[in-house]
Amino acid sequence: MIYLDNAATTRPDEGAVRAAMHYLQEDFFNPSALYREGFAVHKELEEARRHILSFIAAPVGFDLIFTASGSEADNQALFCTANRGNIVTTAGEHAAIYNSAKELQKRGIEVRFAKLNGDGSVNADDLLSLVDSGTSLVSVIHVNNETGAVNPIAELAKQVKQKNRSALFHSDGVQAFGKIPFSLSSEIDLYTFSAHKIGGVRGAAGLVRKKSVNVHPLIYGGGQEKGLRSGTENLFAIKQFEFAATKKFAALESDYQKIAALNRYFRENLRGDIFEILSSPQASPYILSVSAKGLRGEVLLHMLDDEGVVVGTGSACSSKNRYSRVILACGIREKNADGVLRISFSVQNTMDEAERAVSIFNRCAGALAEKMR
């Protein structure tokens, strides 16, 4: 199998899993317990928190709330801060933000959606035009999970603060963390990431927050995570995330170059008479969105799957919809939006796999196009 749906989830890093098994089989204690063993694993939890924050060079005054998923962290960012005035977000957000914003609308909060550019990045002028003195929160995805478009969130946050100093700025960094070079700027108040996008196991994610930002709990209970996220911490998943992230950030630049070469091979060798490249050359190389013009993407996906190549048709969280709202918001016509496939890479992919996959893509798409005539 050639697995090319890494934006949905990645294979857990085996070395990180082995290293973390200690916290599943031996040091399995509750980090909130008062006995010696509990206190010892609590120290391990705090070390993971400090270490993970260091990867994005979080300035002094930032903290990390461990959550069970990126969706949970996104939900906490919106539901537990945006309680007045209006919020501004984009038409290109992951469903965890977009659908949360829609729910806030039902609860009486005004939500303003900024338009997208053709590559899936936010139109900065439109975004800033929506920010006013009543804006309580602005949320802009860092790397678009369907097209790979990279939004300049540090600059956008700075410009938002110039218009409204009290507005909070959040970014969903799930597809950016551990993949593109990035340091957290002081203008960004909240930032989301998730373990399973970079070789971690599912069950660990986080919401980075400026300590001065008043964030309410989304989950209530025993008061873990300084009262901001109750529930016994999943120490195994958190430590495995720490170990996987350590490996990923140590090879950030070399991994980026390897992935860029795989991305470039697809761009240069997919049949131009069938495939249209939707992702811009400036997009994150980890995600390549293409459209098989005039073909059904879902049908082609199953043909590829039968040949041993696994890809997605867009966000795995909204795969039941025929047309991606994000792709349509980029200005792509429904005829071409119907044929969209998302190819997403990991460092475990090889050039040999890329060459075989492209050959299968071209063969399957050619056969389907011939059948459709």
Write structural notes for this entry.
The protein has 373 residues and is α/β, with parallel strands linked by helices. It contains 13 helices and twelve strands. α1 (14-20) packs across α8 (235-250), α3 packs parallel to α8 (235-250) and α9 (252-269) packs parallel to α13 (351-372). It is globular.
Structural class, by secondary structure, is: alpha/beta
CATH evolutionary superfamily of the largest domain: Type I PLP-dependent aspartate aminotransferase-like (Major domain)
- The CATH architecture of the largest domain can be given as 3-Layer(aba) Sandwich
Sheet having the most strands: 7 strands, mixed
Question: Residue-averaged pLDDT, rounded?
Answer: 95
Features:
373 residues; Aspartate Aminotransferase, domain 1; 39% helix; Aspartate Aminotransferase, domain 2; 12 strands; three-stranded antiparallel beta sheet; alpha/beta
List the helices and strands and how they pair.
Blueprint: E1 2-3, H1 14-20, H2 22-25, H3 36-55, E2 62-67, H4 70-79, E3 86-90, H5 95-106, E4 110-114, H6 124-130, E5 135-139, H7 153-163, E6 168-172, E7 190-194, E8 205-210, H8 235-250, H9 252-269, E9 275-277, E10 287-292, H10 297-306, E11 309-310, H11 325-329, H12 334-337, E12 340-344, H13 351-372
Helix pairs in contact: 1-8, 3-8, 4-5, 9-13
Put the structure in a nutshell.
By secondary structure, the protein is of the alpha/beta class. It folds into two domains: 14-249, Type I PLP-dependent aspartate aminotransferase-like (Major domain) (Aspartate Aminotransferase, domain 2, 3-Layer(aba) Sandwich); 251-372, Aspartate Aminotransferase, domain 1, CATH 3.90.1150.
